[in-house]
Amino acid sequence: MPLAVAVVDIDYFKAFNDTYGHLAGDDCLRSVAQAIQSSLQRPGDFAGRMGGEEFIGIFPATGLQEATELVRRIDSAIRALRIPHVGGIDGQVTVSIGVISAVPHGELSVAAFVEQADKALYQAKQQGRARVYAVEGDVSSMA
Predict the structure, then answer these.
(1) How would residue 105 be classed by pLDDT, with cut points 50, 70 and 90?
(2) Does the annotation mark 66 as catalytic?
């Protein structure tokens, strides 16, 4: 059974805090967290804050296509908030998302999945942010 892991990062969040203040930043984080949580519909799916402006999603028994659809739903829910961000993309808060799906084997840890999802997030940022970058995992390279 495949496992999917996503890392969600609020684009230009430092600029958001600098522009609107830390209280508005805290409100933004809460709103984004609620949008992520409301996008999860299956009992085993998990979302939480990794720290700063990053969130993690762990989706058991989820292949890449289904994981991509799920994180696109998360992205849409966040865009629907229409939180103003003059330093952001399209003048509002957006997110970049990296997602990986792979079949775990042996000693493979969740940390290895997170590392690969973080690499996918880096690719989303490299391609211009405010997007999803999804990759099928190569388990042998994660050990």
Answers:
(1) confident
(2) no
